[in-house]
Specification:
Blueprint lengths: L19 E9 L5 E11 L4 H11 L5 E2 L2 E4 L10 E4 L1 H5 L7 E2 L4 H18 L6 H16 L11
Antiparallel strand pairs: 1-2, 3-6, 4-5
Helix pairs in contact: 3-4
Amino acid sequence: MRIERRFTKSGKTPYEDIEFRQATSEIKNPDGSIVFRLENIQVPAAWSQVASDILAQKYFRKAGVPAALKKVEEETVPSWLWKSEADTEALKKLPAEERYTSEMDARQVFNRLAGTWTYWGWKGGYFDTEEDARTFYDELCFMLATQKVAPNSPQW
């Protein structure tokens, strides 16, 4: 499959022209009590509070994200697309309470989703070239950040 760039430029981050802002996500019961609250998240500046809340509540991984990762080399996969796993040696050097965290930045979610879909596409042989796979990844990240596409949940 050939993929053309529509929104991104080769060699540039897909977020180059997208402003991000700090936000707080909160869900309240009808009586005003707080059910869920996540402060200091990063979301695209153009996003509404509702969009930010849905991202934080439904798509952010809220626990178990290793603070240190290492790439898992695969001979038939481009290095930029290698999966990551916990770097247990690096994690041992951190205080126990700092070893695992949650996603706090929308770009982490976009990269995780687009990376997973691109990886599956690569493994399935869908892309004609590595550049097509990279373009697919970049374009998906941009489209997620600008709300041109949105996945159903749950997601990988």
